[in-house]
């Protein structure tokens, strides 16, 4: 019996196009001015220092901003970069520059599962802050109250079995009672290796390739909890 659901965001609850074509370019376009305007912000300073250590560049170096831009272009899953992007997106959401994209079928099912006392969690390479923003300022309304917890790359890479083992330890449920939803087969393989149930989302236009190793669904209405 499924007692908890752990879901990916990009390509699963939300359109890849929204992330690639709206969020990423927005962060890139506003990165330099945001750092300049908020340079005294202690939270930003912590992330810049962590990014500098990752890049091997000094905090004040113009090259650090260039490195952050390069990481964005490369879609690198680097924790301080994701945190800085989240801070920039927070400003964008608050200003009403955009709303978080969530598929209606995902929003409806998440509400239904929550009402059935199934615990819901998010695991994404985007920061926890960014996750809360996309669901909190979504086109389907504020969905944050549906979730019992959020996980990002601080738990480890999404293709690593140890990450899912760590999440299971935090959730505190047997692995076979937790269902992981994602479009990415390598992530699903890692979750399955940790003992979780899995389902691959194959949304039209998002480019996911069926692996054949996991149950599949075109959207959330096709997800079976008795798998």
Q: What are the main properties of this structure?
A:
single chain, 227 residues, alpha/beta, Rossmann fold, Transcription Termination Factor Rho, Rna-binding Domain, Chain A, Domain 1, 2 domains, 6-stranded parallel sheet, 8 helices, 47% helix, 11% strand, globular
Structure, explained:
This protein is an alpha/beta fold and 227 residues long. It has 2 domains: 4-15 and 100-222, HAD superfamily/HAD-like (Rossmann fold); 19-95, Transcription Termination Factor Rho, Rna-binding Domain, Chain A, Domain 1, CATH 1.10.720. The chain is built from 8 helices and 6 strands, in the order βαααααβαβαβαββ. It has a 6-stranded parallel sheet with strand order 3-2-1-4-5-6, sandwiched between helices. The chain is globular and about 55 Å long. It starts with a strand and ends in a 10-residue tail after the last strand. The relative contact order is 0.17. The model has no long low-confidence stretch (mean pLDDT 94).
What fold name stands as the CATH topology of the largest domain?
A: Rossmann fold
Number of helices: 8
Overall CATH architecture of the largest domain: 3-Layer(aba) Sandwich
Strand content: 5-15%
Q: How confident is the prediction overall: mean pLDDT?
A: 94
Briefly note the structural class of the backbone: alpha/beta
CATH class of the largest domain: Alpha Beta
Which spans have pLDDT < 50 for at least 5 consecutive residues?
Answer: none
Order of helices and strands: EHHHHHEHEHEHEE
The largest β sheet comes out as: 6 strands, parallel
The H-level CATH homologous superfamily of the largest domain, spelled out, is: HAD superfamily/HAD-like
Please tell me the total number of domains: 2
* Apparent shape: globular
| Helical proportion, percent range | 40-55%
